[in-house]
Here is the input.
Amino acid sequence: MKKFYICPVCGYDKIVNPIYDSNGQGTYEICPCCGFEFGSDDFPDKEQAFKNWRTHWIEKNYLWFSNYTKKPENWEPQKQLDNITKIEPNNMVR
Here is the structure.
């Protein structure tokens, strides 16, 4: 079974590569949905950075970031945000 990672900013649950390594360091993976870059956009405080980016993303009307990863059919960004509660803090995987 393929392992996917959940974005702690927008709840997108199909990130293919790890977003943090085993030491908690960002891998510079970019969420195709909201555009958050793990290891770059999350300093100095991860939780606050997640909240700030999420607020900005919502204010921009849930703008899909990637030109390469297609937005899912029947995409419901407000519902997608519920995925954040499914994150396992150590590795942010569902």
